[in-house]
Amino acid sequence: xxxxxxxAAAVVCAQCGTRGVGxxxxxxxxxxxxxxxxxxxxxRSKISKPLIGFLxxxxxxxxxxxxxxxxxxxxxxxxxxxxxxxxxxTSLWRRVSPKPQRVMRPFQALATAMGLxxxxxxxxxxxxxxxxxxxxxxxxSKADVAQRSEEMMRAFYEKQFGQSLTIIDTxxxxxxxxxxxxxxxxxxxxxYLYFPLVVAVFLAGRNIKRPVVMHQYVxxxxxxxxxxxxxxxxxxxVFLLLQGxxxxxxxxxxxxxxxxxxxxxxxxxxxxxxxxxxxxxxVSRVRVVAATIVGALVWMAGxxxxxxxxxxxxxxxxx
Length: 319
Hints:
Elements: H1 2-9, E1 11-12, E2 19-20, H2 39-66, H3 68-77, H4 90-96, H5 106-131, H6 133-138, H7 142-161, E3 166-168, H8 177-202, H9 210-242, H10 247-254, H11 256-280, H12 285-313, E4 316-318
Parallel strand pairs: 3-4
Antiparallel strand pairs: 1-2
Helix pairs in contact: 2-3, 2-9, 3-11, 5-9, 8-9, 8-12, 9-10, 9-11, 11-12
């Protein structure tokens, strides 16, 4: 009888033709009733969706940094579910939406973090422009300072090694924005994941789920970039406060939070996996330590070889 009543109350979705109950279609998520389509509803959606996405990222980064064991145990076992884990903005999120407070998927969190870090460069350029710092400190524009530094670098290299130096800007490889944007993001992604990929190779085993290992490192990289973003914002604030008093102090002290952010990154990518992975995978802490050490040595050796070949043999620098 109940199923008959539910069927009678079901509504056919105007978008895909699927019969359903409730407010939204279970197949395509479109509103099932016409009164759900309104200007106010659309405005609420435009505001709430980005806010919920940002809260989801903050929750993910907070849990990875503050409670990594709880987070990754929940991620692997679903006990408790990730949506039930709390963070300082849980109450605010409930006011925005009553739906489950999900964490971001690993690569979605990484993409969001990369976007935030990219925004820091724009924020730093803005701080330099509104204060005319380059003109006051060096007597020339920032573009002229960059050009002069590049010319000095080329002259030094040619004098030392007797060959020309080619400087490749990874954000402008071809001059075609349609290609350069994705190519630059791909290069950055490989740079961020190079070390985790090397370590994951040495942790391979029959009973070890490689996706879990990789996801742990991806979440760690995303959290480290979130810290880097916060450190960058603090650095800009310090710069704005000090640039009128002492240019040297503004440059020096504004870099201190960024340095602290890199130290946190070392913890998240090197120390945290040693603590977390043995609790979620059938692997000993000794093996994780060994894989991390070997991976770090291979990573450093690879960087040294690539740098030697590119810089000293081919005369190429990537920026």
